[in-house]
């Protein structure tokens, strides 16, 4: 079993280090780690340190010996999923599974057919939940680089993002309006890939037209219709395999 991951503000150099605060409490009081066990410390931005536990002190101090520090290169191509806001807690489910799969960035999207609306304090709390979910899922899946969760974008802002991508696609279940299967689409070896996942009610014709102007064509994922909270994960897994990032 791989070593558990804990988040630090800055990855320490080799030598003695004390993990404190909430992460230290989790290591000592929840995981109950003891001397001789291995852990990984990361800043969530691609740098990690392998360490061996020396001692647990009190309820929230884990003393470790950092034995190695490494930096993970930026992934290529970079995969961003624009996720329309699902109902209830399905948004956190989507963020969790996309993080575990290996998505690099997640962009909440207030689509015209979204039932859920992010406004004011509710929007701020929902965004904070998505970011906390990405952090915890990143730790659970032993990632050194956690996905960035952006501020929620409007349709126009999503169009501007799509225009900067090396490959952009809108997942769509209707083959008659699409450009074929995502499984056979031509993909870049480097640069950025941006996928748009619509809401349960689908992407509107007006949104499809705006995204097409930005260079994003509709693609079908498969013969079955996936929920908005699972489509991004399935599509990301397909692309991670096709681009060699899972090789």
Automatic annotation (TrEMBL):
Keyword rRNA processing annotated: yes
A GO molecular-function annotation: methyltransferase activity
InterPro entries: Alpha/beta_knot_MTases, PUA-like_sf, RsmE, RsmE_MTase_dom, RsmE_PUA-like, tRNA_m1G_MTases_N
Subcellular location: Cytoplasm
Reaction catalyzed: uridine(1498) in 16S rRNA + S-adenosyl-L-methionine = N(3)-methyluridine(1498) in 16S rRNA + S-adenosyl-L-homocysteine + H(+)
GO terms for biological process, alphabetical: methylation
Secretion signal span: none
Keywords associated with the record: Cytoplasm, Methyltransferase, rRNA processing, S-adenosyl-L-methionine, Transferase
UniProt-listed CDD domains: RsmE-like
Enzyme class (EC, first level): transferase
EC number, UniProt record: 2.1.1.193
The Ribosomal RNA small subunit methyltransferase E PUA-like domain, residue ranges: 19-66
Known function: Specifically methylates the N3 position of the uracil ring of uridine 1498 (m3U1498) in 16S rRNA. Acts on the fully assembled 30S ribosomal subunit.
Similarity-based family: Belongs to the RNA methyltransferase RsmE family.
Protein name: Ribosomal RNA small subunit methyltransferase E
Protein's organism: Streptomyces albidochromogenes
């Amino acid at each position: 079993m791989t070593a558990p991951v804990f988040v630090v503000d800055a990855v320490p150099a080799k030598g003695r280090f004390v993990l404190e605060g909430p992460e230290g409490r989790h290591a000592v009081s929840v995981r109950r780690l003891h001397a001789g066990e291995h852990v990984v410390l990361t800043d969530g931005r691609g740098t990690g340190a392998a360490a061996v536990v020396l001692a647990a002190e009190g309820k929230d101090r884990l003393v470790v010996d950092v034995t190695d520090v490494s930096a993970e290169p930026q992934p290529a191509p970079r995969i961003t999923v624009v996720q329309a806001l699902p109902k209830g807690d399905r948004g956190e489910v989507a963020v969790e599974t996309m993080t575990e799969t290996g998505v690099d960035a997640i962009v909440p999207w207030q689509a015209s057919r979204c039932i859920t609306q992010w406004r004011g304090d509710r929007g701020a709390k929902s965004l904070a939940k998505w970011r906390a979910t990405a952090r915890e899922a990143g730790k659970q899946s032993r990632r050194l680089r956690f996905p960035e969760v952006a501020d929620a974008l409007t349709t126009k802002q999503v169009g501007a993002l799509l225009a900067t991508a090396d490959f952009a696609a809108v997942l769509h279940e209707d083959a008659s309006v699409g450009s074929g299967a995502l499984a056979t689409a031509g993909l870049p070896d480097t640069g950025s890939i941006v996928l748009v996942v619509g809401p349960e009610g689908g992407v509107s014709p007006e949104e499809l037209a705006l995204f097409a102007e930005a260079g994003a064509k509709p693609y079908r994922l498969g013969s079955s219709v996936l929920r908005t909270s699972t489509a991004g994960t399935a599509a990301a897994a397909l692309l991670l395999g096709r681009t060699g990032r899972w090789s």
